[in-house]
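note to self: the first set is below, dont mix up w the second
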Amino acid sequence: MNASLETPQVIILLGPPGAGKGTHAPKLSQHLQVPHISTGDLFRYHLKEKTTLGEIADKYIQKGELVPDDIVIDMVIDRLSESDCKNGCILDGFPRTTFQAVSLESKVTDKIIKAIYFKASDEILFERITGRLCCKECNAVYHKSFFPPKEQDICDKCQSTLFQRKDDTKEVLKKRLEVYHLQTDPLIHFYDKKNALTEINVENTNSLEDIFQDILFSLKETTLSPS
């Protein structure tokens, strides 16, 4: 049964690429009845429409680097101002730096901010990401070994063709993880210090449903305290 948030919340999903944020975010969005905002989806929209932002962002994405703060912040804040976010939202891929986190906190004053950290080792991430497949149309995510589609290279949901993203290779992933650890790891300390962080180990043998229940429980336990 779906359940709305009693208090408007900005729920931040933290963790390295391939840790499972994209798997659980849509289900959490449906359960809580708040939008799932993925910076990856926002960037893909701009790339598809060939906007100026899309062309700039593409140069960094193709290198496995993070898009500069000034480009990302205004885009996300503008999205948060839309009416469907009035009761809360789920942020996937933002913030990625402490600067972004501080900026978000200063601009979002009418909602509680919570962070969920998906913890996984680099070794596990290499195995997961290099086998990942994505749908061209509905953005559903599969894995060649762990979660294969019923029909090879065909999406179960919309029957469109599946593909491997250009940045889902070992070479690009290595660079992405180096950048992630350098710029994003400090966010773990940032939100932990504010008693707004819950850590979920996604390497264990728990099922996806068990992990999802851990996520729901964590939302009852953390609240962003004043600076």
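second set (the one i keep forgetting abt)
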Amino acid sequence: MNIKINDLMQQSGVKFGTSGARGLAVEMTDQVCYTYAKGFFQYLEVSGELKKNGESVAIAGDLRPSTARIMAAVAKAASDMGYIPINCGFIPSPAVALYGITNACPSVMVTGSHIPADRNGIKFNKCSGEILKYDEEQIREQIVEVDESIFSGAEFLLPEENIDARIEYVRRYLRAFPADCLQGKKIGIYQHSAVGRDVLIEIFSGLGADVTPLGFSNIFVPVDTEAIRDEDYELAKQWSAENGFDVIISTDGDSDRPLISDENGVWLRGDVAGILAAKYLGADSVSTPVSCNTALEKTGWFSDIRRTMIGSPFVVASMIEASYAGKKGVVGYEANGGFLTNSDFPVFGKELRALPTRDAVLPVLAIILLSIKERKPISALVAGLPQRFTASDRIQDFPTEESAKILEGFKETSAIEAAFGEAFGKIESIDRTDGLRVTFQSSEVLHMRPSGNAPEFRCYNEAGSEDRVIEMQKISMGILLNLKG
């Protein structure tokens, strides 16, 4: 049987987009996952990145119940095409991406990131890092030959685990930073079901911190670093009060996006964390989506700021352009906290190599070290930024088609003002780079867009005070829920 990947998207219900293929775990059958993986490898053959001469393909996954089965289907696709599948085990997304970049081989991460456990996904990386939008378009066009008979027998098995990727990811930080650079710091690590929970303990204790594990869970917890759950707000404050931590850190499910709190257990927004991490590294170019906090521009710290569509492929593409333009300290970050580097950075007389994919460890480490360098608690670092506050929320289980209808209803400025004018005032400007971003004459911001990787409609707000942005968020979500009907 021959099937085009674009047709597979429609037939299976497993969509392919910004973060790879994602869908309900029951719809991500062995055959669907095998076909997607084959389409990816076939595209790499066409583009010249892979040749059938025994080259390796790295495979890893998160801790969802369906992950091991999907990893095995991907490994089967690789071996059937003449490649050697390397089972890197259950490790963070940036760890398997780093292994692929270091060893010049493609890598595949089986993860649904922050979405519930009944869903999963497959994230594809080329030898150089994340696939970009052009790659995605070409993968969709691949026509894959599939022998259906192989899915009627015994289940596929994973090769024996290879721990090299995990070891190399930990060494990345323990080699570049001094073993005592976090000496005296009390750090709580909220483990929940994050795949990098043990890796975080190893790295931060290896750099001299006094580390306390917190909140371990054998059941998958869908922690979204961009829409933090109320219980996680309360847990952080409670843990901080009881233990006197300098900081609490955590990640989402595949550990490529961080959560970092101040000394009071207050979680930092990802776009605030990105600004502080970029400052510590001395970046001269910052790429970030249009949804991120405008305090970035107001700091005056960065000579080159590039605003992109939402999604790490757009941030990566922008960073590549910055490097081509001659920038030497190129970073990117997203509102969800994911932090990327496209330059090598000097740290403590050594060199931290570029890692152009979302990473949860570097921004956390950079903010703690900035706190030490400036002799300020993390709350003071945040307070020292231009006071712009952001908040975000989402309507879950909301098809992309329905989100599109809402945005279509706001084609005219008059329609936007009719819905939101009473609450937020007159419109100053409109940006349709990604969804609909409205800046009002008060400098307050409303941004609406469909999620690129889940059936969700996301809403972002920005205002001059924390109380006001929370109020804006409640008003915005109320209006959108009414429009949903």
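remember for set 2: The first helix runs from residue 5 to 12.
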